[in-house]
Amino acid sequence: MQTRSRWKAIHGVLLLDKPVGLSSNDALQKARRLFQAARAGHTGTLDPLASGLLPICFGDATRFAGLMLDADKEYIADVRLGVRTATGDAEGEVLSVRPVLCDVAALDAAIKAHTGEICQLPPMHSALKRDGKPLYEYARAGITVEREPRHVIVRRIDRLSTDLPDFSMRVLCSKGTYIRTLAEDIGESLGCGAHLTGLRRTGTGGLTLQDALTLETLAGMDEAARLARLQPADLLVRDMPHCALPDSAALRLGNGQTVALDALLAGPGELREGMTLRAYGPAGFLGLASVQSGCLRAKRLMPTNAIHKPEST
Fold first, then answer.
1. Which residues belong to the active site?
2. pTM of the entire structure?
């Protein structure tokens, strides 16, 4: 007798507060099993050392997960000056210990110097791949490979608590920014070195920890309560401008046909060539469409049987 699969067609976005000690994929799989979701993906890797916001997409929401990879991120980082480690964090072997002779004014100057567009050398203990293998695998084997420096943008750093040689900072940065490297570079500019003692992601793409749940909290809920905490797929694109379409135009767009811009019921005041919009019909979120040659063209659509009501407009 054939056994029915326990995996279900679950759709939506879970804002997970990932614990320290789990990889992003481990956290994803644990959440997926709790929901018994047939399809799931996350929106950007968070190191095992780090805790905090990890949006997880189930089912049709995975169509929009990749858009979050390019989003700005916000972190709170705990840093210890004077000690440099092999991994740039508290888990690595201590490589050097130097006296911390700076004062708070010098620390602030170093922080300011590392704000804006900066160049970073990706750390060996990272998930960045070389010849199909993550750099951390080379590092664990004692091998150092060449890496290309990368330009990233540190939009803002706010120093929070300070008790030298320890301090904490809030960092708002572009994708691809390595916070452990930022901490190390600040320490080197002060002549003493540094490493991360803690890291927590507090935001990504406008999403925050406010509505995030831990795995322990989810495990203590029944199925109905868990499902009630899922967010709609358009949460992932809520910062994009939106437009509303009547039934006939929504049907055309859903079938991959173009829609004349004068058919819009509502939209941004200015429509520019190439602009991407969140498109809504009477039944809810249709997906993403772009302005091309005076028309709206489908870019990434929801399945017609999985239309979601708008998260926000």
1. 47
2. 0.88
